[in-house]
Amino acid sequence: MKIGYACLALAVPGSGMKSCALKNADADHLISLIGHNLDSLERLADYNIKNGISLFRISSDLIPFGSSAAAQLPWAEIYADKLKSTGNKMLGSGMRISMHPGQYTVLNSPDAEVTLRAAQDLDYHARVLDSLGAGEEHKIIIHLGGVYGDKKQAKSRFLSRYRELEPSVRKRLVLENDDKLFNIADVLETASAAGMPAVFDNLHNAVNPAGEITDEAGWIKLCAHTWKTSDGPPKIHYSQQSGEKKLGAHSESIEIDPFLEFLQQLPGTDTDIMLEVKDKNISALKCINCVSKRDIGALETEWARYKYFVLERSAKHYNAIRQLLKDKSEYPAVEMYRIIEEALNQPLLPGSALNAAEHVWSYFTNKASEARKNRFRSLLTKYSLGETGIQAVKNNLMLLAEKYDEQYLLNGYYLYK
């Protein structure tokens, strides 16, 4: 079982993707942006490998305007060596990669122009995976599309358009249920008719359920049967409902106990799980650490990233985790993350926030100029008086961390959350 995250990572310096406005998308600018994004992809690959994350969804924005303005650019030839080396890194480590075109890639639209653009977009995604040297077990996930007043006809139109796609695209395509129009029963019916795999998304199913089977395990098993050996292990998408946003919105983080409970219903250990969650790699590492028997060093490494983020919320929980990790013969992953979750659910109190900010500031005490020291003290005073938010303080600390290249802080979670 592989557990992974989608597209972007938090607290991985130099891994962000860049794009531009279409009016500025001339050839030279696009080639430069593509070079930057491929460097970012390599950093993400390095991070994933170092941290044992072996499932990763590559951003569709890797090649800006990949199916339009950049479609005729020879980016795959210009960056052939970079693509090959990055692909070798990922695939050589056992990492499984995928891509997921956006909501405007609608294959079953009655509008021929929309369908043409969808096919071009799918060609682009397949080209990326081909350029990385990925086999057909590395997939492209799409939704069925729109209903357009007739669901039966919409599914039939999807099948017709699917059969017209290039073989390089068809061998990669996987169909996923959505949270509004096509439930998992619709997807299984269509995927089976097309001979393509189906992905079960648990949150989409909770919002837009199919009535034939009420339990998730049943749908997961049916979807697993659509995956051939050449497709690789079955995949599912897992997320949790945000408590603060509309129905179907992904949570900020994956809570570990519901996730572990969800795992109990999986048909086996060969199902790969893509997490769809706001904090991306942070939740992926949490889940991996809790289901893998690693050594205490893995937890200590992760605690180093969390420590000031937790201290900001609760010194009590901060000290509890420090005490928990003293016994080097144990591996209390689930307990550690339960304490972290409890800490992060505490209200943010000014005293705790100021305490954490002072701890982080200590990295710059002997480096910062008087002007920077005065700026920081002014922000702390304004925050304590309610004249600004803690984010202004953190933004200032982030600038200092970048200026003085404080990798410990740049690789921690405090400055990003």
CATH-level-2 architecture of the largest domain = Alpha-Beta Barrel
User: N-to-C terminal Cα separation, in Å?
Assistant: 29 Å
Largest beta-sheet characterization: 8 strands, parallel
What's the CATH topology label of the largest domain? Answer: TIM Barrel
Note the beta-strand portion: 5-15%
* CATH superfamily membership of the largest domain: Divalent-metal-dependent TIM barrel enzymes
Counting structural domains, the number is: 3
Structural class, by secondary structure, is: alpha/beta
Radius of gyration: 23 Å
Number of helices: 18
Low-confidence region ranges: none
Highest-level CATH class of the largest domain: Alpha Beta
Measured as a percent range, the helix fraction is 40-55%
Q: Would you list the SSEs in sequence order as H and E?
A: EHEHHEHEHHEHEHHEHEHHHHHHHH
**Shape summary:** globular
Summed over residues and divided by their number, the pLDDT gives a mean of: 95
- DSSP strand tally: 8
Order of strands across the widest beta sheet? 3-2-1-8-7-6-5-4
Key words describing this protein structure:
417 residues, eight-stranded parallel β-sheet, alpha/beta, TIM Barrel
